[in-house]
Write a structure and sequence with these properties.
The chain is mainly alpha-helical. It has 2 domains: about 1-65, no CATH class; about 115-150 and about 180-535, Glycosyltransferase, CATH 1.50.10. Helix content is about 45%, strand content about 5%. The protein has 19 helices and 8 strands. Helix 11 runs parallel beside helix 13 (about 395-405) and helix 13 (about 395-405) packs antiparallel against helix 14 (about 415-420). About 50% of the residues are buried.
Length: about 550
């Protein structure tokens, strides 16, 4: 073999440009002209053909599959693009409609109002009118389950969760208080007579209330009952829970968790004082309510079931001999104190897992029979029928207890007569604000439904238009001056709540009244002239 780098001559006799080295096998005979022609042109054809083959193959590789799969991108879009979801109904309380975007919950870094307010004076007054002192603190055996003997409470449990959803038939709501969130809340708000203005008022009120929380998670009344911290903390938590906020979800979950933990740490689960949150039975019931409601909303058994049961057991053991509750453990008392105990006990029943002794409820109703006036027991006195009237706070308390524990629905004649009496003292713009009466009466008339509720909530018809009802009156009284510490709150009323609980208590009671549309589902509904018991409430 020989190697050459000599360029072959071109047709014009000029030397061609040097090409790459070519190794050629030389046979014995000399090449002919034809062979030289083939040798000269074949390599270019081969190279050109090879290049074209590669280009064609590459093109086939890239574009060859398009004939059969050309529609594949459309298939991907069709299968991956879902139907645009319908716009959900607004949860106005959580979205703060029309409010400044910087309204926040009471997180640690936010300046707390407890640094700005003067501490409330501590007095010996108690919530309500004092009557009987505490007697024997020896307890009857607690009805129902014995709570676990432990005092070590940790973080929120893992079993429970805030179960939001549509509620009702076909819904996914498993919470014991489903009206407080999701589509059910929106529906109840609309059907019950609430509106954007009422929810905006609630949102501002919650923002103010969160800022009043102390660093340890408690609230303190700024009225005469400043020492009743358990009651103030319980009352401070209730409006958040009514708005669907828990320690597991919502913008105020830190606020709720701190308050709940303060209550839990205050009690013991064992010993003669197991479940005691306060020696004052008013405060005991008010502080028990958020533990029970929060459990019903979240089913957090790890954190809440044992404390809630213990607090309920304490209430049951503390009942007086005549079926009432007094200010002290085991003493007899009055209709007003009974009202708070029945609210706590009924919330426990609705929460499903907390045991309530039927005999305790029966004895309480026997007490109401005693203090009830008239053949239908449609009005109530304090400790006897004397002084019972159709439009008093005690009558409103008694009627709510009857609704919860005696089955008095909208078609009950005694309830109808009682509601007729309440309407004699219906909301009146320019009148005196008495939130203790309006808190109870609003619930009673709301559960009664019908034109009576529309008149109470939206006002009587004037020239075909309703105006001057409870809803708009309360909204108009809210402090709305921007930049003030009291923005979003209500001035203390001139009646009992304002004197005892101050601005904090008044604001809490107003918020709960404006949340009446969804706070509790009705137990009974009117049904073609008859009474229909709502499924799942008993």
């Amino acid at each position: 073999m020989s190697a050459t780098k000599s360029p072959a001559p071109t047709d014009n006799g000029q030397p061609a440009k040097a090409g790459p080295s070519v190794i050629r096998r030389v046979e014995g005979a000399e090449e002919t002209a034809h062979e030289r022609l083939v040798r000269k042109h074949v390599p270019a054809w081969v190279i050109s053909g090879a290049i074209h083959v590669v280009v064609i193959a590459f093109a086939i590789l890239i574009f060859g599959g398009r004939g059969s799969d050309a529609k594949q991108p459309d298939k991907i879009i069709a299968t991956s693009v879902e139907k645009e979801p319908e716009e959900p109904e607004k949860d106005l309380t959580n979205e703060d409609p029309g409010l400044q975007s910087n309204l926040e919950a009471a997180l640690p870094e936010i300046d707390r109002v407890d640094k700005q307010n003067v501490d409330a004076a501590v007095t010996n007054d108690t919530i309500g009118v004092p009557n009987t002192e505490a007697t024997d603190s020896a307890a009857l055996a607690p009805p129902g389950l014995a709570p676990t003997d432990t005092n070590n409470f940790g973080v929120a449990g893992t079993e429970g969760s805030f179960l939001a959803g549509a509620g009702g038939a076909g819904g996914m709501m498993n919470s014991s208080f489903p009206g407080r969130s999701g589509a059910t809340k929106s529906k109840l708000l609309k059907e019950g007579g609430g509106n954007e203005d009422s929810e905006r008022a609630v949102a501002m009120g919650l923002a103010w209330l969160a800022k009043q929380q102390k660093a340890d998670g408690s609230w303190v009344y700024d009225g005469n009952d400043g020492k009743e911290v358990a009651a103030a903390t319980g009352m401070g938590l209730l409006p958040f829970l009514a708005a669907g906020q828990t320690h597991k979800t919502g913008k105020y979950q830190k606020t709720v968790h701190s308050g709940i933990m303060w209550l839990i740490k205050k009690m013991s689960l064992s010993g003669p004082a197991a479940g005691e949150l306060s020696k004052n039975m008013y405060a005991q019931a008010i502080a028990t309510l958020p533990l029970v409601e929060c459990y019903g909303m979240t089913k957090d058994k790890t954190l809440l079931l044992a404390p809630a049961q213990a607090a309920i057991n304490y209430i049951q053991r503390a009942q007086g001999a005549n079926g009432s509750w007094g200010y002290g453990f085991g003493s007899t008392g009055d209709t007003s104190i009974v009202g708070w105990q029945i609210q706590a006990l009924k919330a426990a029943v609705l929460a499903k897992d907390i045991v309530v002794d039927d005999k305790v409820i029966k004895k309480a109703m026997e007490f109401l029979d005693f203090v009830g006036a008239g053949s239908r027991k449609s009005s109530y006195g304090y400790t006897s029928p004397a002084g019972a009237g159709p439009a008093t706070s005690l009558t409103a308390v008694g009627l709510l207890c009857r609704y919860y524990s005696s089955g008095w629905g909208p078609n009950n004649a005694s309830m109808a007569e009682g509601v007729e009496g309440l309407l004699k003292r219906q909301p009146k713009k320019g009148g005196q604000l008495d939130m203790y009466y309006y808190y109870y009466a609003t619930q009673v008339v709301h559960f009664f439904e019908g034109d009576e509720w529309k008149t109470w909530n939206e006002g009587p018809l004037v020239n075909g238009k309703r105006e001057g009802g409870m809803r708009d009156w309360l909204i108009s009284l809210q402090v709305r001056k921007d930049g003030t510490p009291n923005h979003g709150s209500w001035d203390a009323d001139a009646a009992h709540i304002g004197r005892a609980c101050g601005r904090l208590g008044t604001t809490c009671m107003v918020l709960l009244t404006l949340e009446v549309y969804y706070r509790h589902l009705p137990l009974y509904k009117r049904d073609n002239g008859g009474l229909k018991v709502v499924d799942g409430v008993k």
